[in-house]
Structure formats: structure tokens, C-alpha cells
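Whiteboard transcription, Tuesday session. T.W. wrote the C-alpha cells on the left side:
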């Protein structure tokens, strides 16, 4: 399975990616997570990426493309991968196409998650995450069994800085401008499947399994 998830911030890509990766035993590559980890560790990539992420802008293509290229070299990608949050621009999509071609691979499907702006704002304002293990929760829709702590590792949950209101607005605008054109790009290539991301988590997961079980039209 080689799949990419596209969609506005907060639509549920990471949540579904996590669950699908567990169900299928395939590796999930979330570029946002990889970037946040680089920032936390203060690597050269992290140092360069931080100001863009804080502003709610995209990290420059060459940085993210190089990062993904490195990540795909690991052995765990041989059985397939689930790309969460990459590609996010046409330039990234084209670079990905070239990278995969060189590996003799291609994407099976690109999943576009959709939801109205009110749903998205609600999701992002209640999102909390574990700074230690990365698990994502929602105050109302997917709360931790351990209250304000992570049920997996016990760390105190935090809100992402870029989930505050002003930055969210900027990220939504960036999505419309830079990422939404990918829907047409992949539709033209016969790869796109759209999923209503506003349904409850289990319903979206079931729909995703359904979509992935159908061979794509050639
Ligand atoms: P969300 O899941 O809320 O959409 P992510 O965790 O995927 O957010 O991404 C957080 C931030 O990391 C983005 O706002 C952007 O700055 C950066 N980022 C993640 N993926 C990419 C990418 N493919 N290209 C450029 N920037 C990215
Ligand atoms: P993305 O990776 O697209 O930015 P996330 O998976 O992080 O989105 O989800 C954003 C927030 O919404 C998280 O707090 C998550 O727990 C919650 N969430 C995800 N999917 C759903 C859903 N189907 N219904 C309600 N809340 C959801
Ligand atoms: Zn944790």
C-alpha cells in the first residue's frame, strides 16, 4: 500500500494515518511530526524550519523534499508507506513522482479529506498532543483516559503553538492557496479519492477501508 493523505489542517489526517498504519502494519510518515522532532532536537533542518512553522507557513520545498527522500531510504518503507501531510505543493508532488519512479514505485491512491471550516476550527482548538510520544487527542472528541496526561506514556498533554487562532487562520489560507491545487493534480492522474472528514473517527476509518479496498479506475 502506497498512499498519501491530503487535507486542511485539523481534518483528521494524522488520526486516520495512525490508525490505518496500525491496522495494515505499514509505516506512517508524517512530515509535520518529523519536522517538529527536528525542531525539538535543534538539528540544522529544525533550525531552518522553525520560523516557517511558527508562522503557519509551509517549510520550503527543498527542505521538505530532501527530508522525505532521506526518510524513504529506510528499510521500513519496503512494504509500503502512508504519507501524512506530504505532498503539500505541486512542486512536492512532482518531486515525489520522480523519487518513486526511480524506486520503480507509484502511489496507489491519494486520499483527500474534507470538512467545513467550522469543523476544522473546533478540531484544532481542542487538539492536544503528547510532547513525549506524539499521540494526538481531542478535549471533547477523543479525550485521554488519563485526563490531562497521555494515556500511552503519562506525559502532560500540550497544545501546539501553531494551533492558536491567528496561526490557524494563516494555515487554512496556505492550504487553499498552495495545497488545494493538488486535488486537481491527482484527480487528473486518476488517483484521487475524496472522503468526508467531518464524520466521527470510526466512521471515517471505515470509509477509508472501503475506499482502499476498491481497485482504482485506470
Ligand atoms: P496539520 O496536521 O495540522 O495540517 P502538520 O503537523 O502536518 O499540520 O504540519 C505542521 C507544520 O509543519 C505545517 O504548518 C508546515 O509549517 C510544516 N509542514 C508539514 N508538512 C509539510 C510539507 N509537506 N511541506 C511544507 N511544510 C510542511
Ligand atoms: P490533521 O492531522 O489533519 O491536522 P488530526 O488528526 O490531528 O488532524 O485531528 C485534529 C483534531 O481533531 C485532533 O484533536 C483529533 O483528536 C480530532 N479528530 C480527528 N478526527 C476526528 C473526527 N473524525 N471527529 C472528531 N474529532 C476528530
Ligand atoms: Zn505520550
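and on the right, the sequence the group agreed on:
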Amino acid at each position: 500500500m502506497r498512499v498519501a493523505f491530503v487535507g486542511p489542517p485539523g481534518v483528521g489526517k494524522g488520526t486516520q494515518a495512525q490508525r490505518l498504519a496500525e491496522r495494515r502494519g505499514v509505516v506512517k510518515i508524517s512530515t509535520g511530526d518529523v519536522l517538529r522532532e527536528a525542531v525539538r532536537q535543534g538539528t540544522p533542518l529544525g533550525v531552518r524550519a522553525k520560523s516557517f512553522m511558527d508562522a503557519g507557513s509551509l517549510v520550503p520545498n527543498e527542505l521538505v523534499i530532501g527530508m522525505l527522500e532521506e526518510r524513504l531510504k529506510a528499510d521500513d518503507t519496503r512494504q509500503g508507506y502512508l504519507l501524512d501531510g506530504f505532498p503539500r505543493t505541486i512542486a512536492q508532488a512532482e518531486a515525489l513522482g520522480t523519487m518513486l519512479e526511480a524506486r520503480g514505485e507509484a502511489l496507489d491512491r491519494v486520499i483527500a479529506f474534507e470538512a467545513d471550516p467550522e469543523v476544522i476550527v473546533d478540531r484544532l482548538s481542542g487538539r492536544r498532543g503528547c510532547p513525549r510520544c506524539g499521540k494526538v487527542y481531542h478535549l471533547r472528541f477523543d479525550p485521554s483516559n488519563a485526563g490531562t496526561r497521555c494515556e500511552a506514556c503519562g506525559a502532560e498533554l500540550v497544545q501546539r503553538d501553531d494551533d492558536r487562532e491567528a496561526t490557524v487562520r494563516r494555515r487554512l489560507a496556505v492550504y487553499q492557496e498552495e495545497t488545494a491545487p493538488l486535488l486537481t493534480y491527482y484527480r487528473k492522474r486518476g488517483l484521487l479519492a475524496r472522503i468526508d472528514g467531518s464524520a466521527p473517527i470510526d466512521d471515517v476509518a471505515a470509509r477509508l477501508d472501503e475506499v482502499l479496498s476498491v481497485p482504482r479506475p485506470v
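Someone added at the bottom: The longest strand covers residues 109-114.
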